[in-house]
Amino acid sequence: MMHTKILPHRILVACLMVVGLVLTALPGWAQNDETEKPERLITMAVEYPGVELPSPDDVDMNVTFHNRGRSDETVDVWVADNPQGWTTQLKTYKYTVTGVHVPSGETKTLTFQADPDDQVQPGQYTFHIAAKTRDDRFKMEEAINVTVKAKKEEEVKVSKDLTLSTTYPVLRGPTDGTFEFSVELNSDLDQDAVVDLAAEGPQDWTINFKPAYESKYISSLQMQANQSRNVSVEVKPSGVAQAGEYPITMRASAGGKQAKLDLTVELTGTYKLDAGTPTGRLSLEAKRGNPARVSIFVKNTGSAVNHDIQFLSFKPENWQIAFTPERIEALNPGAIQQVEVAITPYEDALVGDYSVAVQVQGEKASKELEFRTTVKASAAWAWIGVVIIAGVIGGLTELFRKFGRR
User: Fold this and answer.
1) Fewest C-beta in 10 Å: which of 42, 117, 138, 342?
2) Closest Cα partner for 310 from 369, 371, 363, 370?
3) Which 3 state secondary structure label does DSSP give 353?
4) Could you write out the DSSP letters of every residue in 64-119?
């Protein structure tokens, strides 16, 4: 009977020991995996080494760098061989790129773009993309073969293609706004087709497509032969995007045909202001006819420069409010400026508490502070009162003394 009771406990102890051994070994395994990596190893690959075009057209594809070593690498990259009649570049969504930093264990991707001019004829075109580390330890080269086919006779006679156009390719507004482009999609295809829609924009931006005058989002639409339809492109910038111009590329494709449209969003930034006192207190004491001074700070908490910041006050009748400086010409994002406020109660103001509001009025932004101002009587009146009371007490004392004798 004793063995029957003890056996489950022994099994539990054995299981816990096995789990402990496994947990102890896991860091060692992870470390072994890390040490098995070479000190340095970086590779480059193009997305499509060979492509065919039915006619001279733009070529866009990814060029990917994989860092499989334990050391971070900085790689110089360029187009080593560029056929005549083509304009090429390596870029991100915003910049033309000549070098890329690839941390250990990470992957970085660039975009290779080749644009033909009007003189490019059907034929074979080869582009060479070269890259090397700064110390020449790794040298890489990849070829992209582009075949431009001759148009068939019937295609030469009649152009069958997709086109995108818009009346307003550039929209301007604040960072926290939503931008909506109205785009016309025209299909010259001689048969019905499903047109796929895509867009490229800055990182962390949201881009969606909607049918005209509808709120639902779409990624494709059915087009009849020789039909035109309007599509809305809704763009929401990242909340941390700074003021500036940002390019967006819209693409439509169907049946081997592709159309491209370049759009631009110009961000003016966000307009926000904050104001307060260094201590956080919004109360002060003042004497009638004498200024009470308080320091406030004005801070630009937006991402755009705030110009022509002025100060307004809402005060009791016959009170005076003065600001030093009287206005702020410009306040950069994140900047703080101190302002002195002098509050002078009316000379005949009654003793008590009053409310004085100060408004900081900037460009498309404002902030209001409310000060509780306590008006106290002048010390001179207090001494006069003491003298009067003392005189009354003295007079009464003399009267009591005089009439008390009788």
Assistant:
1) 117
2) 363
3) strand
4) EEEE-SSS-EEEEEEEEE--TTEEEEEE-SS-B-SEEEE-TT-EEEEEEEEEE-TT
Positive or negative CA dihedral for 184, 197, 199, 260? negative
Q: Would you state the structure tokens that stand for residue 8, as one six-digit string?
A: 């489950």
Q: Are residues 170 and 258 in the same domain?
A: yes
Residue 299's nearest CA partner among 372, 365, 371, 370 is 365
Strand pairing partners for 198?
251
Q: Which residues contact 11 (CB under 8 A, 6 or more apart)?
A: none
> Where residue 225 sits, what CATH number does that domain have?
2.60.40.10
The first and second tokens of residue 385, run together, are 């009162």
Using alpha carbons, list the distances in angstroms from residue 212 to 217, 228, 395.
11, 12, 95
Q: Token digits for 360?
A: 């900081």
Looking at the DSSP assignment, which residues form a beta bridge with residue 396? Answer: none
CA dihedral 236, 240, 244, 247 (to 10 degrees): -40
Supply the pTM of this predicted model.
Answer: 0.45
pLDDT in tens, 218-273: 999 999 888 899 999 999 999 888 889 999 999 999 988 899 999 999 998 888 99
In terms of domains, do 282 and 335 share one? yes
Q: Residue 350 gets which letter from DSSP?
A: P
Contact between 255 and 220 under an 8 Å Cβ cutoff? The reply is: no
The span from the first CA to the last CA of the chain, in angstroms, equals: 120
Q: Which of 237, 267, 297 is the last residue of a domain?
A: 267
